[in-house]
Amino acid sequence: MATRLSLRAISASMASSRIVSASIKAGPSTSRAGFSTFKPLLNPKATTTPTNVSSSSTSEVKAQNTKIDVKGKSKSSSGPEVIPPLPRPLGVSTPPSSATKTWSQRKKELLDDDRHKAKRKALVKEATQGYFHDYNRAKGISGGKLWIAPNVLIREDKALYFPDISGKSLLGKETHTTDLMRGKVTLVSLIATRLSEEHEQSFTQPVLEDIAGHPEFNFVQINHQENKLKSLLVSFFISSLKRTIPEDRWSNYLISGGEWSKMDVTNPLGLDNKLLGYCYLVDQNMKIRWAGCGQATPQESQALRRATAVLLGRVAGTNPKDDVAVNTSKSQDTVKS
């Protein structure tokens, strides 16, 4: 006579068979720790390994080392983004001139293959970037700062020339930067927005306080508006600009409108973001010996003060500290050419 099984035993065996069949159809699923959860069930001889602790710790580590990009894909991050130093000397290789270009010079530029290649490269780069590219970069680390200014002067034999830029001064005269900078140590600032004005002041204000009234020093400000409509609006507010700028700087404040040449001005000066402020220290030979962009760090501000003092001392032929009061912790010997 066959033995009878209890109702509880029959239900338990049926439940276990359903679990096994479901696991076989679904296939082995791998947990985050990398172990198969159904291998111990299918292979009784396999040793089981606890995965709760390892999977939870692994998930926490992955959450810290990954971030989600705009498209929703996760990408690993190796830590905070680091701002690189100034990668190259800025400027053009030929000395600038305020004279009008002759027909032969224009013809040479039109037939120059390097210029055409540079224009095509600039157009491709501009086409691949979105309309709000500069705005998105300005929201990034340190306000979109492009590089860290050098701690010392750029060597004179490696330095390049500051290109000639023309514009109308606050006195209403057409002025060229070459005529303003020749024979003097010049601090040049490029601004286009309110944000760039704040960047400029972080660099120039300490220097102007140090060397106010020095006969060999020159301060040139260039307000560049690429949009012609904005340039026209700025020209309407010249009276308000005169109220905010000292009268002795009116002749050195230029308003430049229109798009600058990428080959002659934009690329040589490293103007990769139009929203930032840029600052250049130009020697008496119109060579760029120091450059900074974005919001100045305390180290950059001190470096600009030392560099300006050294150049002024070399023009005067004396020790910079005899002519300029520079309150820095480092001596002027740390700035080398």
3D architecture notes:
By secondary structure, this protein is of the alpha+beta class. It has helices at 7-26, 39-42, 52-65, 103-110, 113-128, 133-138, 177-181, 194-210, 228-236, 238-244, 262-266, 298-316, 320-323; strands spanning 66-68, 74-76, 166-169, 174-176, 185-191, 217-225, 253-257, 278-282, 288-293. The protein has 13 helices and nine strands. Strands 4-3-7-6-5-8-9 form a seven-stranded mixed beta sheet. Strands 1-2 form a two-stranded antiparallel sheet. It is globular, with a radius of gyration of 32 Å. The model is unreliable at 19-26, 28-77 and 320-337 (pLDDT under 50). One of its GO terms (cellular component) is mitochondrial inner membrane.
User: How much helical structure, as a percent, in the residues?
Assistant: 25-40%
Question: Shape from CA axes?
Answer: globular
User: Any idea what the radius of gyration is?
Assistant: 32 Å
The overall average pLDDT, rounded, is: 74
Strand content: 5-15%
Largest sheet, in brief, is: 7 strands, mixed
Helices and strands, in order, run as HHHEEHHHEEHEHEHHEHEEHH
